[in-house]
Amino acid sequence: MKKTLPEFIYKYTSINKYLFESLIRGELWFSSPSDFNDPFDSSLPIDFLIESYKRTEGWETNRDLIVNEQARIVQPLNFSAKLEELRKKVGVCCFSSVNDNLIMWSHYANHHKGLLLKFDVAELGKHFNQIERVAYTDKICPVDYDSPPEKLLTTLLTKKSTHWKTEKEIRIVVENKGNYRFPPIALKEIKFGLRCDNHQQTDIIQLIKKFGYKDTNFTAVHIGNYTYKFNTAFITTESGYKMYRKFGDKKILIPGFDIEI
User: Is residue 235 within 8 Å of 206, Cβ to Cβ?
Assistant: First the structure.
C-alpha cells in the first residue's frame, strides 16, 4: 500500500437491493474495466502505425509483409489481444478521496437519494494488496510492446483523462472480477444523501447493527447557509422499520442468509 494514499476513501452509491446484499455479506463488487462508463478507461490507445498497415491491401494474408514486419505488426496485435483478455478478466472497485463532490453525489448516489460509504484504507490494505491512486493526464503515453501486458494494464488502470480529475479516484484492483469480502471494521461511516428517504435510512441503520458493524457511525448531509457545500449531522434515530420494506417481498433469500420481513 502506497504512503501517498489518504487515511479514508469513499464510495458513492445508490440504495437498492444490491447495496443491501453487499452490506449483509460484507462484500464489495469488483467490475471489469470493459464495463466502465468511460470508453477510454484502461483501453489500449490506437497505434497509427498498425492502422496504416491495416489499410494496405491484402495485409492479412500477405505472408511476406507479415514476416518482414513481424516486430511492427504481429507483435503489437498479439500484445493488444492479450491486454484486452486481461482487461476483461481483472476486477476494479472505485472510490474517491473526497466526500463532498456535488456531481458525484448526483451521478453515483442517485441524485442525492443515495449514500456514501467511508472506508479505512489501512484496514482495507490488510485484505487487498493493490490500492492505487489514479493520476490524470491529457496525453496517452506510447506503448512498449516488449513489456509484459500485465505491467501495462496496471499503468492503464491508474491513469485517466483530466476530464475526470475532480473525482480524485482511488482504485482497488484484484486479479478477477467478482464479489470480495471486506472487514466490517473497515466501514467507518455511512453518510446519507440530502434526498435520502428516512425509512431507507432507518432500514440501513438497523441492518448495520444486525450484522455486526460495530465501528460504523451514521450521518446525514444538510444544505449549508450561503454556500454550495454540505453540512453533516450525526444520526442516532431508533425505529421499528424492517429491512427491505421498500422492495416489497415478504421474504428475501440470500445465499447464507434467511431474512424475514
Answer: no
| Residues contacting residue 76 through CB under 8 Å, at least 6 positions apart | 47, 50, 143, 145
Beta bridge partners of 116: 12, 191
140 phi-psi bin (left φ>0, alpha ψ -120 to 50, beta other): beta
- Using alpha carbons only, give the angle 90, 155, 97 rounded to the nearest 5 degrees: 85
Distance in angstroms (rounded) separating the CA atoms of residues 65 and 223: 66
For the chain (261 residues), the mean pLDDT of every run of 10, in chain order, is: 82 95 95 87 62 53 55 62 87 96 94 96 96 90 72 87 94 96 96 92 91 92 70 59 40 44 36
| Single pTM value for the model | 0.78
Q: Judge whether 191 and 219 are in contact, CB under 8 Å.
A: yes
List the chain domain ranges: 8-37+89-260
Backbone dihedral angles phi then psi of residue 227, each to the nearest 5 degrees? -155, 160
First to last CA, the chain: 41
